[in-house]
Amino acid sequence: MTASFPPSGSAPASSRVPLGTTGMTISRVGLGTWSLGSTDWGPQDDTDSIATIGEAVGSGVNWIDTAAAYGLGHSERVVGRALAALAPHERPYVFTKCGVVPDERGLRKVMTPASVRTELENSLRRLGVDHIDLYQVHWPGDGKLLAWGPVTDDPGAPDLGTPLEEYWQTMADLKREGKVRAIGLSNHGVDELERAAAIAPVDAVQPPFSALDRGTADVLAWCARSGAGAIVYQALKSGLLTGACTAERVAALPETDWRRQAPDFTTALHRNLAVADTLGKVAARHGVTTAAVAIAWVLAWPGVTGAIIGARRPGQAADWAAAADLRLGEDDRREISQALRTHVPEAGPVHP
User: Fold this and answer.
1) Which CATH architecture group holds 13-238+299-320?
2) How many angstroms separate the most distant Cα atoms in the chain?
3) Which alpha helices (DSSP H) does the chain contain, by range?
4) What's the CA gap between 290 and 317, in Å, rounded?
């Protein structure tokens, strides 16, 4: 079937760029909602979350990225409540993900056709929409547990593992049926992207990418060559590159915050903050925030269409517009490259 999809009208047309060949044009920055729907970042008030979404949309952000796994559906419900409060012409594009489902041991990567279709129907219901603008495979569907650290004593679930060619065909079927407008892959490497593209076009890719984590530069180069859109996450590296992060603030994080145990916030904290300090010096010359420079650096990388930036409270999205419009000069890029080469050389190329 052929579906007709409405445009998102919340961002000025002059500030938008095409998302690959999807027909959607998006603001350079989108709102990420992991922290709005999950206690992984500490306690979160839904009223603050809905106000944050409203403020981001009002500032020109015209897409929201969420996932069924965030808060086991709570993030999608919060996004749905925020969407319901907006007039139809104000509503942003909604991007969500499938393939991470809970079981008795935790969150498992499952991309069987039946599971994907059930997840889609549940996401549509929670979001209160009749289609998903961009439906993404969250992680490769190997049937294994998803964890932020090493998984021990996991026998796996071979009966739940699905070959990429099979689950990508399921995604293509959903697109053909009009249930989703575009399909994408998150956390997949170049070889996997090539295999998927042989089955059906990859409309968009979502890799992690920041000044502190440049290991997916090859994925971005693939997007540039293939014409796929690329919306990167973790551009601010979970707050490390906001300019507000300090050792004292990290020590004061809630016990439930996953960052308390993460190497980037423990053993690597000092060198990561040294990079943030360099970004802060560049920011001072431009009269913007450290976060704006960190985002602008990511947006300037070839192949990047947009960046997903998280926020938990109104006011935190204030410098996003500055980041989208900021143009770093050659001296700025040279200074940042030197800092990356000095402090985090193993994180990937320091310039394109």
Assistant:
1) Alpha-Beta Barrel (3.20)
2) 56
3) 34-37, 46-58, 74-84, 113-127, 164-176, 190-197, 217-226, 247-251, 269-286, 290-299, 320-325, 330-343
4) 13
Where do the domains of the chain lie?
A: 13-238+299-320
- pLDDT computed for residue 36 by the predictor: 83
CA–CA gap between residue 54 and residue 75 (Å, rounded): 15
Mean pLDDT by 10 residues, the chain (352 residues): 56 75 96 81 82 91 95 94 94 97 89 97 97 97 76 60 97 97 98 98 98 98 98 95 92 87 92 97 95 96 96 77 88 97 96 85
pLDDT digits (tens, 9 = 90+) for 69-97: 998 999 999 999 999 999 999 999 999 99
Distance CA 252, CA 255 (A): 9
- Residue 83 token pair: 């969407």
3-state SS assignment for residue 265: helix
Catalytic residue numbers read 70
- DSSP state for residue 91 in the 8-state scheme: P
Distance CA 323, CA 296 (A): 5
Residue for token pair 């679930």:
157
The amino acid sitting at 9 is: G
Residue 137 bridge partners (DSSP): 98, 185
List Cα–Cα distances, 70 to 51, 64, 76, 87, 277, in angstroms: 18, 13, 8, 25, 31
Pairing label, strands 63-65, 93-98? parallel
CA 96 to chain centre: 10
Task: Tell me the DSSP string of 94-121.
Answer: EEEEESEEEETTEEEE---HHHHHHHHH
149 touches 102 (CB < 8 A): no
